[in-house]
Specification:
Layout lengths: L3 E12 L5 E9 L4 H11 L3 E2 L2 E10 L4 E8 L18 E5 L3 E5 L26 E2 L2 E2 L2 E5 L2 E9 L6 H10 L2 E3 L11 E10 L6 E9 L3 E6 L2 E6 L4 E11 L4 E12 L3 E3 L7
Parallel strand pairs: 12-19
Antiparallel strand pairs: 1-2, 2-5, 3-4, 4-5, 6-11, 7-10, 8-9, 11-14, 13-14, 15-16, 17-18
């Protein structure tokens, strides 16, 4: 079955202004693979559009032989000229400090306890948060989480099956040594996303991370000397205890535990 390429006029997107760009979409039928569909469009679509060089192509499979291919153009130096294209662009870096959230069952400190006038003193829950007879309900709080990603361009020869397997095995691990200015235990590797530009072109790979600070000799509630790596899990054991001043049995934290949740990994295996 011959491979056919049809441009989808309704899929054309044109952006003007300070960052102009053009997106063209093509329907490919009869392609034996994603790479074959990309090659078919490379032969069919122009190398430049409105004076802007072609930057990239991506393929979305519809069936075993049908693909929707997108070609993108922008005024930057072209990087999608086939196997003999120009040098890859420089790596890029993005970050986000919006943080994460967690449920806090024991506060850093109880600032005040207020009882009714003439009544018994307010029970002392020893920094337990939002306490009920069933135990602490806790409260959601924002915690410092620094998310960042890096995009690198690697030669096709550098992205072997063993390299991909190495990246896969490191996904969901925490750095075993210092990485990007963060101490060991603070960076969680969330995984990588890659795409190949052309049959013999280089790879564009984005690596995603999240960082959370370690706690060294910390104090939470009445507990001191807490040492917790950024991605360890801290929890508290509660028990019933009589508060003779308040004349009430209350649930109080008895012990704190730090659990390792993620494996440690050597991020040098990422090759970045």
């Amino acid at each position: 079955m011959p491979t056919t390429v049809h441009q989808l006029i309704e899929g054309t997107e044109v952006t003007t202004g300070a960052s102009p760009s053009v997106t063209l979409k093509y329907f490919v039928d009869g392609a034996a693979s994603e790479n074959a569909a990309l090659d078919a469009v490379l032969s069919a679509c122009p190398a430049s559009y409105n004076g802007m060089p072609r930057q990239s192509r991506s393929a979305e499979p519809i069936s075993d032989t049908k693909y929707l291919v997108t070609a993108r153009y922008s005024p930057q130096e072209s990087n999608d000229q086939g196997s003999s294209g120009s040098a890859p662009p420089e790596s890029s870096y993005e970050f986000n400090t919006s943080g994460g959230s967690e449920t806090m069952f024991v506060s850093l400190a109880t600032r005040q306890r207020v009882a009714l006038p003439g009544g018994p003193p307010a029970p002392d829950f020893r920094s337990g948060v939002n306490m009920t007879d069933d135990g602490p309900q806790g409260v959601e709080r924002t915690v410092p989480v620094f998310s960042f990603s890096e995009t690198h361009f690697k030669a096709a020869s550098a992205v072997s099956n063993s390299y991909v397997a190495s990246v896969f095995s490191l996904t969901g691990t925490v750095n075993s040594s210092a990485f990007r200015g963060f101490a060991a235990g603070e960076v969680l590797f969330l995984g990588a996303r890659g795409s190949k530009r052309g049959v013999n072109g280089d790879w564009e790979i984005t690596y995603s991370f999240a960082a959370s600070p370690n706690v060294v000799n910390g104090t939470i509630g009445g507990f001191t000397g807490i040492n917790k790596d950024g991605w360890d899990y801290l929890w508290f054991l509660f028990e019933d205890k009589e508060d003779p001043n308040a004349e009430k049995v209350v649930r109080r934290p008895r012990a704190a535990y730090v659990e390792q949740i993620y494996r440690r990994g050597n991020f040098s295996g990422l090759g970045i």
